[in-house]
Structures are given as C-alpha cells and as structure tokens.
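Standup notes
- HV: blocked on the assembly model, inputs below
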Amino acid sequence: GAVVSQHPSWVICKSGTSVKIECRSLDFQATTMFWYRQFPKQSLMLMATSNEGSKATYEQGVEKDKFLINHASLTLSTLTVTSAHPEDSSFYICSARYYGYTFGSGTRLTVV
Amino acid sequence: AQKVTQAQTEISVVEKEDVTLDCVYETRDTTYYLFWYKQPPSGELVFLIRRNSFDEQNEISGRYSWNFQKSTSSFNFTITASQVVDSAVYFCALSERTDGATNKLIFGTGTLLAVQP
C-alpha cells in the first residue's frame, strides 16, 4: 500500500532557529502533498497545498514566508518553519494523494 | 465553502456498548468524498473509510458501520460492541474539487471517544 514517511517524528529547537520537516512518498509518486497543523485537542488545519515543480498554495492566514514549502520532486515535499517561536509549537502532519489521502506519522515540534 | 461539523466533542461509553459518532457536512459540489479517520494518542491518522457522493449504500466492516444520508448531509459512524482499543479521536473529513484542480481534505473538529473497561 501507499506509504508516506515523515521525518523527524519530533524536534525541539530554540526560538529563532529554523526547522525542516520532510515528507516522502515511498512507493508512489505524489504530485500533490498537503501540510496540516494540529494544536493540542484541536482539529487538523490545512496550511498549504504543495505541488511538484510549482509554488505552494497557502490557506488564508498562513504566512508563506514563515512556512516555506518545497516540492522539488515527485516523492519529496519539505516544510521549513523559519525563525520559529514558541507559538509555532504544534503537531505538523503531511498527506499525499493516492487513491484517498495517505498521511505521514507527524512531527511534534516544540520551540523553547 | 466546504465545512464538516462533529457536534460531539467527547463521548464516554463502557466497553461493549454501541456508540454512534455524528458527522454533518456542507458542500456546494455534487461530486465529493467523505472520510473517517482514527487518531490514537500516538498521533498518526488511521484511514477507516472513503465514500463518494454517488454511493449512498451503508457499509459495514466488522464492528464498524457507516450511514450516509445525502438528504440530511450526514455521514455517521457506529462502533458496535466497543472495546478499550477503540479509544481515540475520530475525525470526519470532506474532499471536494476546488478550482478544477486540487482536492483539499477538510476535517471536522473531531470526537474524542473514551471506552471504559
């Protein structure tokens, strides 16, 4: 079946630094990937849609300069949280379209 | 715009009880897909079911069953004879075609199910 691998599973970083999260489709090509953010006890909120070879489409209210998305190949999309602050601490999860939607295992980001 | 409402924030049942999780959706499209996912404490999302808007047949998979009613825009999920392992957050989600291109998947607010032994 379709597998999406997401790394790292968790990361702790200092305020002001940048963090990169990778999302790979292991056994299929994903022209479109989605990035979600989930705060504790809340739903998954779509941040952006990542399209291979083109610019990402961001949802309203999401700062594109802060959350940089790169989808340079058909199997890899990356989300970089730039100049992270404690309020960026959250659970980030990616998804790729394959029949339905296949999700990565998520990344728990803590900014201290 | 598409919207998914899960009015039940938390449900607590005793093992072996049946429980139904409600989901109501809004969409302007005639073609759309509905999903249910399970999110255990570990955080990963477990796919449970996908249903397209043209298939209103109810579905049963083991202890799980789904009732899709377009007339009321609802896609409810029932767990029969619940077990402690069913304890998790359950999300209903909707996907519709936007701008003729990408199908975004929008989630409801989720229902936390706690099954007590």
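- HV (later): unblocked. The first strand of chain B starts at residue 3 and ends at 5. Chain B touches chain A at residues 33, 35, 37, 43-45, 47, 50, 91, 95, 102-110, 112 (CB under 8 Å).
- Next: hand off to the docking folks.
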